[in-house]
Amino acid sequence: MKIGILGYGNLGRGVELSVKNNPDVELVAVFTRRNPDSVKIQTPNIPVVSANDAENWVGKIDVMILCGGSATDLPVQTPKFAEMFNVIDSFDTHAKIPEHFANVDVAAKNSNHVAIISVGWDPGLFSLARAYFNAVLPNGHDYTFWGKGVSQGHSDAIRRIKGVKNAKQYTVPIDAALDAVRSGVNPNLTTRQKHLRECYVVLEEGADAAEVEREIKTMPNYFADYDTTVNFISEDELLKNHAGLAHGGFVIRTGQTSAENKHVIEFSLKLDSNPEFTTNVLVAYARAAYRLNGEGKSGCMTAFDIAPAYLSPLDGATLRKTLL
Amino acid sequence: MKIGILGYGNLGRGVELSVKNNPDVELVAVFTRRNPDSVKIQTPNIPVVSANDAENWVGKIDVMILCGGSATDLPVQTPKFAEMFNVIDSFDTHAKIPEHFANVDVAAKNSNHVAIISVGWDPGLFSLARAYFNAVLPNGHDYTFWGKGVSQGHSDAIRRIKGVKNAKQYTVPIDAALDAVRSGVNPNLTTRQKHLRECYVVLEEGADAAEVEREIKTMPNYFADYDTTVNFISEDELLKNHAGLAHGGFVIRTGQTSAENKHVIEFSLKLDSNPEFTTNVLVAYARAAYRLNGEGKSGCMTAFDIAPAYLSPLDGATLRKTLL
To answer: Which residues of chain A have pLDDT under 70?
Structure first.
């Protein structure tokens, strides 16, 4: 399978790395909106080309993996590139998924391509866990916890405060809440009871620390509903101790099959690198897109629409023999 | 969806219960190899009929859920009933799955039915976990732990020993092994390091306890490779404290996406009732079989071949909106 990468940030670099773990995958080219000469990639002898020249690569790339952001890149890129290629994206603005799905579906159907959107771990593997768990334990409750890991959105929100030079925000699941869920009592948990927010903030010269802390802790939606801790540190310390991209989380469903019998189903991830793991998921779904398109399928799909066998490099008989 | 149940033991009763949790499912009839008059079911006004009369129900049942055992029932029943109905089974003799698949596939294809085999939690949900985890983290190691729960096969093995009146055997995963796996060090674990075997044994009058204990602990394959504890108890105590059908387990995959970054993926189940949970999984796959057959599909499939959306009573748009 020949893949292309569109966008060479953390995700693009992750896809490039994941090719080494997937012998059936070959990287053909990296596409960028920057000046291609300014983008240095890790793999020797692979061209970096302008995203504007992508149409010249039609027929040379089986699946294009879109590594842009959900806010402004993917809503434009995914429908556009689905006209030329089978595509995979990691669109993660949950509220806008229906609209994104509809736009991509039109483009992919018109051009007979497969587009798989919202791939990664949430949305992605966590969505799969929720769907499977709901189907096999219909009478129950779902709980999703995130972390410990960096929330880019919350870090950005802190950085927009006057007097803040840099910041990292960790979302931390609260053990007591996890324990209560696992006990099967189906607790009604408030936002505050599920997650803590830990902030590491570098101030501008002369900034008012107390005022910055107050602004963070009272920020609606982002922090006001949580127990939030604010730690002021030096920029050196931030870069040294808080540069990591670790993340993870838990999907738990508890429920009953009869008056007497309760069950707990749990899926969890503990990731040293959020982008590296996410991109390995993207590559597995690229394999599915390529195969499905080879079977004549087209249109927009999500992880819900893909049978697991399509993700594996193994054939059906080998899968049944070794993993069933 | 109209379902039939073949075989009214623990699994058959579980399917009957699960109908209450799945409003789109209607139980039409229970089929038995016993005298139908001798089988009392829980649901009023549902006929219990002879398994020999099943062919009279063709066209009246969308999916037949086969609740027999893997040793001798399902190898015969699944191909036979796949000639008349869409069928689901929980065939769990891992080594014989390829042969069973081939036999069922011929029958189902010839008669244009869908047959989904080896559904439940292992094989079933645990198989899915292994397949997804391998696909998204190709460079890693899988570990499956079972328990704490009753192993029917090991309990039977003890009951065959001279002087044993009754027995229950629990398979218990060893915490130290689970912790080592979760730490990401990819340990090579021996059989003895992964699971303990706890036996509760009721002796016949005058039996030699020391000899029974020796026979259990030295039994090849079943116990000799494990740390095994043997507790002699009264039959009253066995019936009172060890009648439960709780079970569970863990599938863990650890691996790396680069030299620096490790990841841990974990799926676990903690079940009060193994048969009640298993049968809810069977019913979800019955929904899939019915829909796939409605789309013109036929032949034998496993959980690997079924897109998760087919298991859910929700339509695609609702799934994307609520669970993605």
So the answer is: none
Six token digits for residue B26: 């209607």
Rounded Cα gap, residues A64 and A78, in angstroms: 10
With the C-alpha atoms ordered A105, A51, B135, B247, is the resulting torsion angle positive or negative?
negative
In a 13 Å sphere around the CA of B221, the CA atoms on its Cβ side amount to: 4
Q: How far apart are CA A66 and CA A74, in angstroms?
A: 8
Judge whether B24 is closer than 8 Å to chain A, CB to CB: no
Beta strands in chain A (DSSP E): 2-6, 26-32, 48-50, 63-66, 86-88, 114-116, 140-146, 149-150, 164-173, 195-203, 227-232, 247-256, 262-271, 299-301
| pLDDT per residue as tens digits for the range A9-39 | 999 999 999 998 999 999 999 999 999 999 9
Distance between CA B280 and CA B273 in Å, rounded?
A: 11
How distant is the Cα of B41 from the closest Cα of chain A, in angstroms? 16
Helix (H, G, I), strand (E, B) or coil at B288: helix
Kind of pairing, strands A149-150 and A164-173? antiparallel
- Taking CA–CA distances from B22, the nearest residue in chain A reads A138
Task: List, as ranges, residues 125-144 from A with C-beta within 8 Å of B.
Answer: 125, 127-128, 130-132, 134-139
Could you tell me if A189 and A177 are in contact, meaning their C-beta atoms sit under 8 angstroms apart? yes
Cα dihedral value A268, B142, A92, A220, nearest 10: 20
Task: Classify strands B227-232 and B247-256 as parallel, antiparallel or unpaired.
Answer: unpaired
DSSP letter (8 states) at residue A98: H
Instruction: Give the Cα separation of A288 and A155 in Å (integer).
Output: 34
d(CA A139, CA B313): 13
Q: Identify the burial level of B93 via C-beta atoms within 10 angstroms of its C-beta, where 0-12 means exposed, 13-18 middle and 19 or more buried.
A: middle
Structure tokens at A175: 């053990």
Instruction: Give the CA radius of gyration of chain B.
Output: 22
Q: Pick from B271, B4, B243, B255: which is nearest to B122 by CA?
A: B271
Question: Cβ distance B302 to A320 under 8 Å?
Answer: yes
CA triplet B24, B30, B36: central angle to 5 degrees? Answer: 160
- pTM over the 0.90 mark: yes
Half-sphere exposure of A18 (CA within 13 A, CB side): 30
Contact flag A17-B132 (C-beta cutoff 8 Å): no
Q: How large is the ipTM?
A: 0.95
Q: What is the pLDDT of residues B189-228, one digit of tens each?
A: 999 999 999 999 999 999 999 999 999 999 998 999 999 9
